[in-house]
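Exercise 7. Predict the structure of Histidinol-phosphate aminotransferase from Devosia chinhatensis.
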Amino acid sequence: MSSFTRPTPQPGILEIAAYMPGKSGKPGSKAVKLSANESPLGASPKAVEAFASAAQQLEIYPEGSSRLLREALGEVHGIDPASIVCGNGSDDLLHLLAQIYLGEGDEAVMNRYGFSVYPIVTRAAGARIVMVDERDYHADVDALLAAVTPRTKVVWLANPNNPTGTYLSDAEVRRLHAGLRPDILLVVDSAYAEYVTAADYSVGLDLVRQYDNVVMVRTFSKMGLAAARIGWMVGPDHVIDAVHRIRGPFNVNLPAQLAGAAAVRDVEFTQRLKEHNARWRDWLTERLSGNAMRAIPSQANFVMVLFETDQAAAQAFASLADGGYIVREIGASYGIHNGLRISIGTEEAMRAVVEILSSLEQRS
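Solution. The predicted structure, encoded as tokens:
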């Protein structure tokens, strides 16, 4: 009889720290969730209607390539639908890219406070993650390039970044790409692109069209369809072909496909969401920039607020929770123990958050 008593995970799997989602209030509570960067305006009414229409077709497998969704994305964004692949959330696509391009002995490079899913998918593929220090919570292109070795196969870049909200300009992203070998895949994760107002920002689509080693990943989660789990990616033909070979055969369900297609075509709702976010993001940043707090200027739908001490951040989290507002602690996931990430919510929620945190500052 074998000496092994149970199935054993591959080396390194149990060393992975599981992803930690934003907290919610206790069941039955009326706490306002500002911890997961969800839409404060809900979903597009057209998307809700389309989602409901799928109820009459639940016994039928969805079309496997998400054709209706890819056609809608292509129509609105000016992209060849054949260059698009959809997934069960953008993290599904990140996992697939890691499985395809990373393996034992390989390395993937990311900035220190980049999205916490990148280390998970990298290590799950048997590769090593290389974290590079930032400059004042901004990705440092020179440092990223200096970290590249002959073993580097992927560079992960969230732009704008989560949890900091900072971004790299189009010129800086291009400088990063220009310094990479042609065999290194640059993954531009533009999850928060809908909320960016900076004039020098680019979603990365032009780079994808110009080069064979760049992909752009997007999501519907931040624009009102987090529950539907829809991600999409644009890439060169050889990358799209490889992803199609290993993705699940029906990896985006029919209600999600229909809701996503309706949502992307509802450009008026998306614009309204962007305008609401810009107004209250900038207002929150200004109001929380004081002696005891520092709000990092953001291009996403959240603001990262830094406190003078770890204890002050913990007290702020507790006070907000006591007041009925749940924000994101980012110490355990990102190592920023003196910081909190606050999603942009309704006007009422933003004013309440400022009132609670301002009262703490006055007492300190």
